[in-house]
Specification:
Pfam family, one: zf-HC2
Organism: Streptomyces hesseae
Low-confidence stretches: none
Structural class: mainly alpha
Shape: elongated
Distance between the termini: 50 Å
Helix content: 55-70%
Mean pLDDT: 83
Number of domains: 2
InterPro entries: Anit_sigma_mycothiol_RsrA, Znf_put
Protein name: Mycothiol system anti-sigma-R factor
Largest sheet: none
Number of helices: 6
Strand content: under 5%
Length: about 110
């Protein structure tokens, strides 16, 4: 995705790190670069707005549930694999975590 105009920060970099930007998990200097880019680039601004809306919706609908530490760890591990461009194993992380949680409750 790109608007076709040259930018100091490439669109692909902005989109690759959009959630870090949304979650305020990047250094201030990098955050400022992304803000400038999003202000200049309408496709990235549109994607930013969409992801921001999804994040708010998820928080509103699911923000009150405690996430088991094991599930969080597995999901974060998958995210890191995807970011690194590595193959992700075909397994249902959520189903595995729920089964483990149910087994722990039975014990």
């Amino acid at each position: 995705m790109s608007c076709g105009d040259p930018h100091e920060t490439d669109c692909s970099e902005v989109l690759d790190h959009l959630y870090e930007f949304l979650d305020h998990e990047m250094p201030d200097g990098k955050c400022a670069e992304f803000e400038v880019h999003i202000d200049e680039c309408s496709p990235c601004l549109e994607k930013y707005g969409l992801e921001q809306a999804v994040k708010k919706l998820v928080k509103r609908c699911c923000g009150h549930d405690d996430v088991p530490a094991d599930l969080r760890s597995k999901v974060m591990g998958r995210i890191e694999l995807i970011r690194a461009g590595e193959a992700v194993p075909d397994q249902d992380v959520v189903a595995e975590a729920r089964a483990a949680e149910a087994a722990a409750k039975r014990d």
